[in-house]
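Re: that backbone. Tokens:
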């Protein structure tokens, strides 16, 4: 059966092609978890006989995947000892122009992203940049896209800076037996970073000037009304639900405080009785909420006590969150689901692109990037169950900066230097660094385990297996020949063509998946042309991490999309040009640093 050929591909090759296309379609058009999609693809390739058991599960033992897992622990040590916070505090300063502000922001972010998870770095910087922008008198939207761009461009400067670099270098070592130096991409990466920073400054007019989404939440008095229940109200002792007070026209009940009890109820259960002297706080359209005075015999409270500044109490607090891409909340209203009930939160207001939506919050059809103002319970830590739907930035965890900060920094620097000098392979260095973080108490064992993102590791492992299937079934070789037929035998043209397609593909799929998919194609193309694949693969590493034109092209773009009040098209205006500029810079510098060498 496997020998059956159609259009030059075997049956197993067609199964792989259908699997890849189906997987990418599911990732693009559904909300299924990416780790489950990759696991399903691995299972399908195994069941259909495309891969044997060893091949199907080789991704889980891949050196690059193990390195990524161990590095999560190293990053946990750096995060919990406040290294990132110290750098943020001392490096941004007070620049006197936009150009200087961009450089002061992008350089440290890029350096940090060369060694740490760029998602972690951006998540830390988002709130800092918003406050910094306000201090500088600049719209946050002018700085948050450069923030995300810097993290991506910085990540390619080392092999450990971004997952595709580890995946591609690991596959290269598997094929050749030669390990890449951890700083192999440093010079090309730094050149592209410099070009990128100058390009952002030159094209700053293409960056949108959006109002910060949370600016709509600065005055709670504009959208909350506090009502008092008079002692002679005829509805006393009746339940809130029977009176229809939980969800009223134009808004909803946020909280209730009984006259004889300082405890605040939020959300308010339907069976809670209304008593004289109770205070009811509503959120929504003020003019319609004031009708409650006439319909239910309520009166204005003597003063408005529900203020944003009161958020940091033990009883209740307000937090802003942004709706993630892929969230199940998208396209629905809070009234239509059990989200508030299941998570013990109350939606107070919704902002979209910096403007509060003038309708009942629970009736707003939510979109990706919407900013939600939520009242939450006494716990100020972000519950894990929110992670798939909402992104919070106001973390209550404040690390202690002290001796541990210096220790964790020394551990990280030692790991990089020892690996770069070839004294010890990166995997061993990473294991020793992770152990040192635990031994010197830079993080606890519990914090280290929580830091390991198993979902991401599943995607990385699946990406490795995907690359094996593409190569084993001959797809890579056929595509390489096809590219050579179209582009001829000029190695620079072939390198550019594959990098261009890789840059485009990574706008829509994981850069890790793009790296695993294009590795065998680039490797085969280089060998068919008779050249050493190394420089081709360095160019590929930079290309698959150069996604600037869509907010779904990188997790860091998604992190800044809501806080910046961006529209989808905002990324395309500057991002398409950035893609082409960085591609040209990439090819130029790679060929200069790593001249093409014929195979021996």
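Recovered sequence:
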């Amino acid at each position: 059966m496997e020998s059956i050929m159609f259009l030059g591909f075997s049956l197993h090759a067609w199964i792989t092609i259908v699997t890849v296309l189906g997987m990418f379609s599911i990732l693009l058009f559904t909300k299924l978890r990416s780790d489950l999609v990759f696991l399903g693809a691995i299972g399908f390739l195994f069941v259909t006989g495309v891969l044997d058991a060893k091949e199907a599960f080789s991704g889980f033992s891949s050196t690059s995947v193990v390195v990524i897992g161990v590095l999560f622990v190293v990053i946990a040590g750096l995060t919990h000892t406040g290294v990132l916070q110290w750098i943020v505090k001392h490096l941004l300063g007070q620049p006197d122009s936009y150009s200087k502000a961009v450089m002061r922001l992008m350089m440290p972010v890029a350096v940090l992203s060369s060694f740490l998870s760029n998602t972690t770095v951006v998540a830390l910087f988002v709130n800092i940049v918003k406050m910094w922008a306000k201090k500088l008198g600049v719209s946050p939207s002018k700085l948050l896209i450069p923030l995300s761009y810097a993290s991506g461009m910085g990540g390619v400067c080392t092999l450990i800076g971004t997952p595709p670099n580890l995946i591609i270098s690991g596959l290269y070592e598997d094929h050749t037996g030669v390990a890449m130096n951890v700083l192999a991409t440093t010079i090309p990466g730094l050149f592209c970073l410099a070009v990128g920073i100058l390009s952002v400054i030159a094209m700053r007019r293409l960056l949108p000037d959006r109002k910060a989404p949370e600016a709509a939440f600065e005055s709670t008095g504009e959208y909350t009304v506090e009502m008092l229940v008079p002692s002679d109200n005829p509805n006393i002792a009746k339940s809130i639900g029977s009176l229809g007070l939980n969800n009223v026209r134009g808004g909803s009940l946020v909280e209730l405080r009984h006259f004889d009890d300082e405890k605040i109820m939020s959300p308010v259960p339907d069976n809670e009785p209304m008593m004289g002297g109770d205070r009811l706080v509503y959120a929504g359209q003020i003019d319609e909420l004031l009708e409650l005075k006439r319909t239910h015999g309520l009166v204005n409270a003597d003063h408005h006590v529900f203020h944003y500044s009161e958020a940091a109490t033990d009883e209740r607090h307000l937090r802003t969150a942004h709706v993630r891409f892929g969230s199940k909340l998208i396209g629905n209203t809070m009234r239509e689901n059990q989200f508030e009930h299941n998570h013990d939160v109350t939606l107070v207001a919704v902002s979209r692109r910096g403007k509060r939506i003038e309708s009942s919050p629970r009736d707003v059809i939510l979109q990706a990037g919407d900013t939600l103002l939520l009242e939450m319970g006494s716990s100020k830590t972000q519950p894990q169950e929110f992670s798939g739907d909402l992104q919070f930035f106001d973390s209550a965890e404040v690390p202690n900066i002290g001796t541990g900060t210096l220790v964790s920094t020394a551990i990280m620097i030692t790991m990089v230097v020892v690996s770069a000098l070839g004294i010890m392979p990166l995997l061993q260095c990473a294991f020793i660094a992770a152990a040192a973080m635990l031994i010197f108490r830079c993080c606890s064992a519990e914090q280290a385990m929580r830091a390991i993102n198993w979902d991401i590791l599943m995607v990385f492992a699946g990406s490795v297996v995907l690359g094996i299937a593409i190569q084993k079934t001959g797809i890579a070789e056929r595509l390489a020949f096809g590219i050579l037929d179209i582009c001829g035998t000029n190695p620079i043209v072939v390198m550019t063509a594959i990098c261009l397609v890789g840059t485009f593909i990574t706008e829509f799929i994981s850069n890790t998946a793009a790296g695993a998919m294009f590795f065998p194609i680039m490797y085969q193309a280089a060998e068919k042309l008779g050249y050493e694949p190394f420089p081709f693969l360095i160019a590929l590493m930079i290309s698959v991490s150069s996604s600037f034109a869509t907010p779904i092209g990188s997790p860091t773009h998604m992190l800044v999309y809501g806080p910046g009040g961006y529209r989808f098209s905002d990324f395309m205006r500057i991002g398409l040009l950035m893609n082409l500029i960085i591609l040209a810079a990439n090819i130029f510098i790679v060929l200069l640093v790593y001249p093409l060498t014929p195979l021996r």
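The chain is about 50% helix and 10% strand. The mean pLDDT is 80.
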